[in-house]
Amino acid sequence: MKEALSRGENPFLPSLDGIIPDHASTEGIPVGTIDIPLSLIAGTRTRGRSSMFSCGFLPIADPGSEFAAKWSALYDAQVNEGIRDPIVAYEYLQRFYVAEGNKRVSVLRWLDNPTITAHVTRVMPRRAEDAEADSYREFLEFYRIAPIYGFFFSEAGSFARMARLLGRDLESPWPEDEVKRLETAYRLFERSFKSNGGSSLPLTSADAFLVYLQAYATSDPLRVSARTMGERVKHIWSEFVAASPDKPIDYVEHPPEGKPRIIPAIKGLVLPVKPLRVAFIYDRSSQTSGWVALHEQGRLDLEKRLAGQVETIAFPSCASEGAFDDAVEAAIADGSTLIVTSSPRQFEQTVRAAVAHPDRRFINCSINLSSNAVRTFYARMYEVKFVMGALAASLAENHRIGYLAFSPIYGSISEVNAFALGAALVDPYATVHLRWLSASGESWEHELRDAGASVIAGRDHPDPTNPDAPHGLYRIGEDGSAESLATPVWDWGRYYELIVRSIKNDTWPKGGVGRKERALNYWWGMSSGVVRLDLGEGLAAGQQRLAELLARSIVDRRLHPFEGALFDQRGIQVNPKGSAIPSNEQIASMRWLNSNIAGRLPKSWELSRDGRDDVEISGVISRQTDEAG
């Protein structure tokens, strides 16, 4: 009690009456007679009983009182025979409030019992739009198929992610033995996590458990002894720290500078220098994925740019866990010291491989994902999209521009917003009509045509399955033909060259100086030459000059796409006029759309299977978004 008072907290037990005063008049939902964790019993049902116990459920009555005598007798009964009668409790937001059996709870708490049997009634939250109530609805969806209490996640969608990491879903009830294994493993993890200092980290035990599952999903994460669990928790402790909200991702905006090391250079004059071996693991093939085709071209360009200094090997179509793991082992056997994965969908697989092979370097092409073991990399394509938007507005005579995005993953929102801001810079009446390929399929073309948009920012790269389809910025003529106007270029060969040079020049470790146990994301842009905008030959001289001036201003840091007042679709100013430019983290994790965009973020159930896969790993849709739209 003294500790609670010193912290300015209530020294007595909270009551459900005090949280929701008229809860007794609401109809509860019977849950049944179940074993509940004593750690989740938060207080009493009524105020009258709360003053009999401290906030830790310890009795505070006078030692000579009748209450103290009853408590002592109950203690003796538990030690000698065990308490068998269930208590009666009300559950509200995964916390339990005792109606009958407060002394039983107090005794078992004193004896450090993990659980107690209870007749449970559930009280539903009433504030439908409250974030806590929204999170609770996700819990109820999980409880229906795996009745376990105690998972308190910070992020929406975490229950679905946990199910996926365990090879399950939230549709069909899980086998009883699987539920028991999960509950046992989670209690083991929670105990080990807290005993190692987890309570001092600003993330919940459930959040940390997701990090654990990500690292050991293929290593039987639920069938472990207490000793093995403790060893695993210690081994990936830096991953927990990197995932903490107070450890933001470090965005490195420019390639590290460095010169070749002198001693190795001298040795190279006498002895042949062993080439650095790099492995590329793709989830798809370059024949079916334009994104993979870009990275594969980057791999080939890397070999040409650093001929004799680097050797590469590629593993296509490694989407499954088995194929990915086989590729990693083959890459290591081949002598690869740097392993590259090209998709956010591979992030969790890459983390597992990095944890298992700490002597190798792993990088994953994604943004806004946290890991200490894996460095992520992406390009500031929003800079190019800003220039594209300005160019599009100069070409759209009716002020209507089309924009096609695939799925709402991190980074994509900043690109469409930058495009819209670039358009507004040239034409204050411009409207950007946004469509999502993963939500609308091929109907987006008809939708943009019906909206009157003939100037369109389509796919960023060619589609190998339909090579004749236009991409980049183009204009649809009256006869239906497409005129190419400008093409955004991802120069992954340049990107990989800079990364390999940082390793060979020994500046790779310096990228992490001061960043111990923090996630690091390379986020290079136009100034590094990793992205650019190639202009079509048919553009007028003035339009070419406009694009070149804007690009040069961004490279020279005289212009930033997101400086100035920014307004979302509701007209709300998201950063006050004259304020600083949004941080890299704010740009990468944007969840709002600019005021001149006609369209919305899709709901998760509207997305294709590929789109949902993207969003589950690296998306910006939350369950609040689903229900608000």
Structure description:
- The protein is α/β, with parallel strands linked by helices and about 625 residues long.
- The chain folds into three domains: about 1-125, Conserved hypothetical protein from pyrococcus furiosus pfu- 392566-001, ParB domain; about 130-245, no CATH class; about 380-490 and about 530-629, 3-Layer(aba) Sandwich (Rossmann fold).
- Helices cover about 40% and strands about 15% of the residues.
- It has 24 helices and 21 strands.
- The strands form four sheets. The protein has a seven-stranded parallel β-sheet with strand order 6-17-11-10-9-7-8, sandwiched between helices.
- A hairpin with a 5-residue loop joins strand 19 and strand 20.
- The chain is globular and about 95 Å long.
Summarize the structure in short.
The protein has 629 residues and is an alpha/beta fold. It folds into three domains: 1-124, Alpha-Beta Complex (Conserved hypothetical protein from pyrococcus furiosus pfu- 392566-001, ParB domain), CATH 3.90.1530.10; 130-247, no CATH class; 381-488 and 532-628, Rossmann fold (3-Layer(aba) Sandwich).
